[in-house]
Every structure is written in C-alpha cells, then in structure tokens.
Amino acid sequence: MTPTRLFEGKRVLVFGVANERSIAWGIAQAMHEHGASFIFTYAGEALEKRVRPLAEVVGADLIRCDVTNDEEVEACFEQVRAKWDGIDVLVHAIGFANREDLDGRFIDTSRAGFLLAHDVSVFSLVLLARHAAPLLAARRGNIITMSYYGSEKVVQNYNVMGVAKAALEASVRYLAADLGPDGIRVNAVSAGPIKTLAASGIRGFKTILSTVEEKTPLRRNVTQADVGNAALFLCSDLGGGVTGEIMYVDAGYNIMGL
Ligand code: NAD
Ligand code: 0WE
Prior knowledge:
Blueprint: E1 11-15, H1 23-33, E2 37-42, H2 45-58, E3 61-64, H3 70-83, E4 89-92, H4 111-137, E5 142-147, H5 159-179, E6 185-191, H6 205-215, H7 224-235, E7 246-249
Parallel strand pairs: 1-2, 1-4, 2-3, 4-5, 5-6, 6-7
C-alpha cells in the first residue's frame, strides 16, 4: 500500500535550521518525506556553509534573515513573494539568550539580556507572522513554533528563556485568535530536551537527558523525528481542528508528579 503523502504541493518556509541536529531540520525532513517544497532562511553568513548542503538535500532555496533586523526580514519576505504567491507552513524554530543568562539566578538577568532573549525568541514570531499572514491566508496555512517545559515550571538555569517561552506560548494563543478568521492555524510543540547546537555548552545537559530517560513514562528521550512528525500532524489537514495549542512531545515527562 502506498502511504498517503500529506504535503504534496505544499510550500514550507523554515526559520531555524543551523545544522543537521536542528529541530527545524527534523521538521523539514518529515515534511520532505511527504512531498513538501521549501525555502530555508539562515541567521547570518557564518551559518550559510552549514545550511546550504542541507537545503540541497530537500531542494530548498536559501535566504539570509537575521530576525532582529527589520530590513532583513522585509527583504526576506520580498524574496519569498517573488517565488511564491502563498505559503502553507511557516516553521519558527528560533531561540536565543546570552550564555551568561542561562546560568546562576534568574534574578540577575540584565535588561539587555532580557530584551535580547525576548526579541529573538518571542517578538520574531509576531513579526514573521505579520509578514507571512497574507501569504498564509492565500492557502489557509499554518504557523508552528517550538517551546519547552521551562515556560510553566522552573527548570534550573533555563531562567530568562523560561520567561520568554511563557510569552511565546501566550503569543501563540493571541496569534491564533487574530489569524483564525483567515483560516490560519497557529500552534506550538513543547519538545523534551534534545542535543542540538542550542543545547551544547549548557551545563548539566547530559544530566537532564539521563534524568528524563529515567523518569519519563516512555523511558526515553525524544528525537528530532518525533518533533517533526508531531509538526507534520499539526500542520497537515489531520490537525485541521487544532489551533492555539501547545502540544507536548516529551515522552510524557510533563504529566509526572512525585
Ligand atoms: P538550533 O541551535 O539548531 O536552532 C536554533 C536556531 O535559532 C538556529 O538555527 C539559529 O540560527 C537561530 N537563531 C538564533 N538567533 C537568530 C536570529 N537573530 N535570527 C535568525 N535565527 C536565529 O537549536 P534547536 O534546539 O533546534 O532550537 C530550535 C528551537 O527549539 C528553539 O526555539 C529552542 O528554544 C526550541 N527547543 C529546543 C529544545 C532542545 O532541547 N534542543 C527543546 C525544546 C524547545
Ligand atoms: O530552548 C532551549 C535552548 C535555548 C538556548 C540555548 C543557548 C545555548 C548557547 C538559548 N540561547 C542559548 N545561547 C547560547 O549562547 N532548550 C529547551 C534547551 C535547553 O537549554 C537549557 C535547558 C534546556 C533543556 C538551558 C538550561 C537548562 C535547561
């Protein structure tokens, strides 16, 4: 039996592929297997040589876009509009805080560090959603972003990123309400910890992975493919009734109490 291809003819604009371990790459691979076409964006020159070979695997076009730069975001969407008259999926898999703000006490976060984390990790979703909305409305498309458990419970050292993820999840709900009347759905996947570039250099990350493996109902960590498949479901017609939702893909970790 031929499996159903959920993304035949679908156009997917991806923010957040840095390398082969990126969650955004897991999402792109899942959608590629289902027939999607892609544009990948990358944050700066330094990442281009990493991202280009991955883009080639799925036949994606590449556009540079640092989301903290309004002109670059504007220019990026001009290029997108030159290629496509509509978008089916906007993938937002971007997050950043200063390294020193992911250690020690949250109370010590500087104004600049707080604003940077919120600019890159939260405002970028609002900005990209606004630019993409007309293109998404043309195809009753979807927005998907990535959150983490530290948004609702205190996770040691996650600090300002936890506060940013709480704002990100609230933004998902407000964007879902704004864009729902145009048939655009907005959802988040809250993923369990995965060893990516954004996890490298986090003190104690190995301990986090082994603790999850021990305590989680499924007794394992999740993979980029697990997250990719959940994103595929949410952004396909199978997820047609779901918007404003934060879907845990964490092997069940979040349900456990004592
Ligand atoms: P990653 O390092 O592969 O991806 C982070 C991406 O953010 C990179 O591609 C980077 O280029 C991009 N980025 C940072 N600043 C940017 C800017 N100014 N402009 C444009 N892009 C910028 O790591 P990842 O783990 O795949 O992270 C993707 C998302 O998943 C993040 O939102 C992260 O918070 C979230 N997340 C990660 C985990 C985990 O354990 N790895 C768990 C849950 C959620
Ligand atoms: O969202 C994330 C990672 C976010 C992140 C990571 C870095 C590392 C390098 C944001 N900014 C930076 N800046 C850097 O300079 N995760 C969910 C993964 C993660 O990060 C943690 C975690 C987990 C889980 C940080 C502390 C504690 C747990």
